[in-house]
Amino acid sequence: MTNNDEWNAFLDNLLSITIKKHRESKEGESLRQRYTHIDEMLTTNLTIDEKHFVEEIIFELGLTTDREAEIVYHQGIKDCVWLLKRLGVLA
Questions:
Q1: Is the confidence at residue 7, as pLDDT, over 90?
Q2: pTM
Q3: What H or E segment, with its residue span, contains residue 43?
Q4: What whole-number distance in Å separates Cα of residue 9 and Cα of residue 33?
């Protein structure tokens, strides 16, 4: 494993921990309730085929959003390390 692979694994682990903590928070619970409400709206207002179509679109949008958030999170940590090095806090 290269240093870059180790760094990415470290960042992925930090991201996973952060997501887990968020999901266990009040905000995470609120979002779960919101998703449940949205699912109920889809079930009541759409046919089964329409619901599956909308769910597929929402899933794809979610994947894109998740990936963008992961990239921003990783870049934020890299920027933080760069800044700490520039300030002389890290060697």
A1: no
A2: 0.66
A3: helix 26-45
A4: 31
User: Half-sphere exposure (CA, 13 Å, Cβ side) for 18?
Assistant: 11
Asked if 39 and 51 touch (Cβ cutoff 8 Å), the reply is no
C-alpha triplet 43, 41, 32: angle, nearest 5°: 105
Q: Which helix (H) or strand (E) holds 20?
A: helix 3-23
Q: How far apart are CA 67 and CA 69, in angstroms?
A: 5
Task: Return the DSSP state at 90.
Answer: -
Alpha-carbon distance of 50 to 42, in angstroms, equals 9
Token representation of residue 3: 């240093």
Distance between CA atoms of residues 19 and 32, nearest Å = 13
